[in-house]
Design goal:
By secondary structure, the protein is an alpha+beta fold. The protein contains four helices and eight strands. β5 and β6 form a beta hairpin. The protein is globular and about 45 Å long. 27% of the residues are buried.
Length: 132
């Protein structure tokens, strides 16, 4: 399996789309690469003792190097859908495939009786309505 940061900052949309095509929906795992500034306001944060400046979802070190992602996995999933990745493939890459990749798909990763679940209910535009 291959891991792909889907925050819209680390990897160009054409590379994201082509990676999904190359690996297929069974072998791709979306990751956020998020750091402690994820979801926070613009400002200064720290990562491993280094100063990180976060502005408009982009977290960089003082020299401009990308420090990590400042978004969460759900937003990454929405972002890659916005890049043209089929919705079902992006959802699998954020749910089923990560669980399969670390050997816990029998416990989590899909909504079936007997598995633990965190359920995100979203509207048609993928805005979160409720989390159960």
């Amino acid at each position: 399996m291959a891991e792909l940061i889907g925050d819209g900052i680390h990897i160009h949309p054409s590379v994201v789309r082509n990676t999904f095509r190359m690996f297929g929906e069974e072998r791709l795992v979306l990751i956020s690469d998020s750091m402690m500034a994820a979801g926070m306001e613009n400002g200064e944060y720290e990562l491993g003792g280094q100063k990180v400046i976060m502005k408009d979802r982009k977290a960089v070190l003082e020299d401009g190097t990308i420090a990590g992602s400042a978004t969460n996995l759900y937003e990454c999933m929405k972002c890659v859908i916005g890049m043209g990745v089929p919705e079902h493939a992006a959802i699998f890459a954020a749910t089923r495939n990560p669980a399969r990749s670390i050997g816990i798909y029998d416990e989590v990763g899909s909504l079936v009786p007997g598995k633990r679940a965190d359920i995100v209910i979203a509207d048609r535009e993928l805005n979160i309505v409720r989390v159960i």
